[in-house]
Specification:
105 residues; two-stranded antiparallel ribbon; globular
């Protein structure tokens, strides 16, 4: 992918399944059995950057947990996983805007 000019691999909606007892976002263990940190490491190992999707509302378009009221907590979690880009949509809310924000590294 890098040879074709790609810089980021962004995981879109439906990667998340719930929030745990501490209200931390949880990735789907069936689709990501090694976890998001391992996925990010594999992507970085190919010379690419890892990005992740979230929604500014309480739910995503796919009816998964969004980041509303958990923005700082989710940003910290995504950083722990090694994400380099956050794509935040408002698709499940009345306005539909997308904002992609690279992190500094």
């Amino acid at each position: 992918m890098k040879g074709a000019g790609y810089e980021y691999v962004v995981i879109d909606d439906c990667w998340q399944v719930k929030r745990d007892a501490r209200r931390k976002i949880v990735a789907d263990p069936e689709h990501f059995p090694s976890g998001m940190r391992a996925l990010a490491k594999a992507i970085h190992g190919k010379g690419l950057k890892f990005g992740i999707y979230s929604d500014a509302g309480s739910m995503t378009c796919g009816k998964r947990p969004g980041s509303k009221d958990h923005e700082a907590q989710d940003a910290k979690t995504y950083a722990e996983w090694g994400r380099r880009l956050s794509e935040v949509r408002t698709g499940a809310t009345p306005t539909d805007r997308t904002r992609a924000t690279p992190t500094r590294k």
